[in-house]
Design goal:
GO biological process, one term: translation
Strand order of the largest sheet: 2-6-7-10-1-11-12-13-14
Number of helices: 16
Keywords: ATP-binding, Ligase, Nucleotide-binding, Protein biosynthesis, Transferase
Helix content: 25-40%
Family: Belongs to the GatB/GatE family. GatB subfamily.
InterPro entries: Asn/Gln-tRNA_amidoTrfase_suB/E, Asn/Gln-tRNA_Trfase_suB/E_cat, Asn/Gln_amidotransferase, Asn/Gln_tRNA_amidoTrase-B-like, GatB, GatB_C_1, GatB_Yqey_C_2, Gln-tRNA_amidoTrfase_suB_CS
Shape: elongated
Distance between the termini: 72 Å
Subunit structure: Heterotrimer of A, B and C subunits.
Length: about 475
């Protein structure tokens, strides 16, 4: 009997999203990633005596946008609080966060797993400042003898999104996180670059015997930065908790770190409760009052969200799978929509976008944004194929050259002499030569084996280096063979 036959998994997540502002939440320091250590820090970041925070209006705007995209209520009145804890990457010895009056609450995100739709609740989303970064001497904090602190990230604006414990399987957790990341990207609330720590996941998971209503004791695994790590961490933690419960032991409520190399969770500290942080209102910031006009202006400016775009693409004839692949990233989805303005066959465009175009992106290791082939160029190429200027096979050669040179397809076709040959006079001599060289195929065709003509078409295409119009070749062959 498997673990999930004995126990039901209960999972909720906390997602820390770096907001896409140019400056920090309470000062004018740059939020740019990758600066030399401790160069994007000022007296406010470092909490020097006499400094005061000033709230960045852009942070509030992005928080409202994210909340609306997550179907949250936007509070007219919210406030900041001090979350007190002592840790070397927090120079203030507290974090400016929001506790009992967050800016966003009571939202939801719809997901679909194995054809079943689920609605995952959003408890809240609140603004806060990020801590610095510990630079460990070893591979992980647990294997390091010493750590240094880089304060560049201190004060970078975060939105912490807290879900309800509504997820009951690992695929549901991954589907929720993937949809959440897409929403943040589509709204441009965050670039969500996981490799840079722009979005980080804390996973709360517990087990309970099937039929039990009360939740089991949960653990929290901190700062996971990839979907793969989330999956592996959950698999390990579910197994670990199940083994404890099977042996009659108790699961300890604690905060864990995920050791990617060893594939295990390790204890960091006992899990804190709210009272451990001694929250109290931030005295240096006034309450935040948001009028309805501000909220409605943000609502009107919301872009098309991933779920809506998937439905729109399906209405154009794309399958669930195709629509899902195309909308997987905002960049690819925008590329497709831009190409659609110039080429109306959505299904054929999707096939080329997911096929040759994506293959070449991966082969060259470039993103959609870096692609030398622009949407209008792909649309033009497909139009040329449809008109018979080139064949689909030649089209694959042309798009490779487009990636290599960045040139328009018409230019490449002209320079390399790749235009499809449709002139019957020009093809007739080649067709006669193919017939003469392949008497057995001719006899097979006359004997009723009509598939033999396919071989002859192939030989003609080979002789013309793929430039012959297959339809014209097929007709000429039938005409010439009928005369023999």
């Amino acid at each position: 009997m498997s673990i999930l036959d004995r126990y039901e998994m209960v999972c909720g997540v906390e997602v820390h999203v770096e907001l896409a502002t140019k400056t920090k939440i309470f000062c004018n320091c740059s939020t740019e990633f990758g600066g030399e250590q401790n160069t994007h820090a000022c007296p406010v970041c470092l909490a020097l005596p006499g400094t005061l925070p000033v709230l960045n209006r852009g942070v509030v705007n992005l928080a409202i946008k994210a909340g609306l995209a997550l179907n949250c209520e936007i509070a007219e009145f919210s406030k900041f609080d001090r979350k007190n804890y002592f840790y070397p990457d927090s120079p203030k010895n507290y974090q400016i966060s929001q506790y009992d009056l967050p800016i966003c609450k009571q939202g939801w995100v719809d997901i679909e797993v194995d054809g079943e739709k689920r609605r995952i609740g959003i408890t809240r989303a609140h603004m806060e400042d990020d801590a610095g970064k510990l630079v460990h001497s070893g591979e992980t904090i647990s294997t390091s003898s010493e750590s240094a602190v880089d304060y560049n990230r201190t004060g970078v604006p975060l939105l912490e999104i807290v879900s309800e414990p509504d997820m009951r399987s690992i695929p549901e957790v991954l589907a929720f996180l993937e949809e959440l990341v897409k929403i943040m990207q589509y709204t441009e609330v965050s670039d969500c670059r996981m490799e840079q720590g722009s979005i980080r996941f804390d996973i709360n998971v517990s087990l309970r015997p099937w039929g039990q209503k009360e939740f089991g004791t949960r653990t929290e695994s901190k700062n996971l930065n990839s979907f793969s790590s989330v999956r592996r961490c959950l698999e390990y933690e579910i197994g670990r908790q199940a083994e404890l419960l099977d042996d009659g032991d108790e699961v300890i409520q604690e905060t864990l770190t995920w050791d990617e190399g060893r594939g295990i969770t390790l204890s960091l500290r006992s899990k804190e409760e709210a009272h451990d942080y001694r929250y109290f209102p931030e005295p240096d910031l006034p309450p935040l009052v948001i009028d309805r006009e501000w909220v409605e202006n943000v609502r009107q400016a919301l872009p098309e969200l991933p779920a809506a775009r998937r439905e729109r693409l399906k209405s154009l004839g794309l399958s669930d799978y195709d629509a899902g692949v195309i909308t997987n990233t905002k960049a690819l989805s925008d590329f497709f929509d831009e190409a659609m303005k110039r080429y109306a066959d959505a299904k054929n465009l999707a096939n080329w976008t997911m096929g040759e175009y994506t293959r070449l992106l991966n082969a060259q290791g470039v993103s959609v944004e870096e692609s030398p082939v622009k949407p209008q160029q792909l649309a033009t190429l497909l139009g040329l194929i449809d008109k018979g200027t080139i064949s689909g096979k030649i089209g694959k050669t042309v798009i490779e050259e487009m990636f290599a040179s960045g040139k328009d397809p018409e230019v490449i076709i002209k320079e390399k002499g790749l235009a499809q040959i449709s002139d019957e006079g020009a093809l007739l001599k080649i067709v006669d030569e193919v017939i003469a060289k392949n008497p057995q195929s001719v006899e097979d065709y006359k004997a009723g084996k009509t598939q033999a003509i396919g071989f002859l078409v192939g030989q003609t295409m080979k002789a013309t280096k793929g430039q012959a119009n297959p339809g014209v070749v097929n007709n000429l062959l039938k005409e010439r063979l009928a005369l023999q």
